[in-house]
């Protein structure tokens, strides 16, 4: 039994149309734009911060911090009077403003203490 030219064309047209719709709609776009920034502490230690900026209204801003040890942690954006604050509200705060950042950890007295001060390394120096 021969398949007609029309029936051979339908599946290709359907997939082509679906791909075009997908490319033009926001449902196929990534949920986050990722921006990678490298920071250096006063002691020379480097931390890479990958900022996850949502491309829709349904997601939260967050950052993934990558430490020299290979460990990483993701923190959600929290309230801040100035700058941008990311935290898990338990073990770590990453607070950025301008080209700098501070890391804070609990001090054991129901407060936070600064454990590191970092400066953003310009992109051409990141390598």
UniProtKB/TrEMBL annotation:
Keyword Chloroplast: no
Annotated signal sequence range: 1-31
Keyword Lyase tagged: no
SUPFAM superfamilies: YdhA-like
Pfam families, alphabetized: MliC (PF09864)
Domain (C-type lysozyme inhibitor) ranges: 39-110
Descriptive protein name: Lysozyme inhibitor
Organism: Leptospira noumeaensis
Lineage: Bacteria, Pseudomonadati, Spirochaetota, Spirochaetia, Leptospirales
């Amino acid at each position: 039994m021969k398949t007609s030219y029309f029936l051979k064309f339908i599946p290709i047209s359907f997939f082509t149309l679906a791909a075009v719709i997908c490319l033009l709609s926001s449902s196929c776009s990534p949920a986050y734009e990722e921006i990678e920034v490298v920071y250096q502490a006063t002691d020379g230690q480097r931390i890479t911060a990958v900022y996850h900026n949502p491309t829709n209204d349904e997601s939260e801003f967050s950052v993934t911090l990558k430490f020299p040890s290979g460990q990483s942690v993701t923190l959600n954006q929290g309230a801040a009077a100035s700058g941008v604050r990311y935290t898990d509200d338990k073990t770590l705060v990453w607070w950025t403003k301008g080209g700098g950042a501070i890391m804070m950890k609990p001090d054991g007295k129901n407060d936070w203490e600064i454990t590191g001060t970092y400066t953003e390394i310009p992109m051409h120096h990141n390598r």
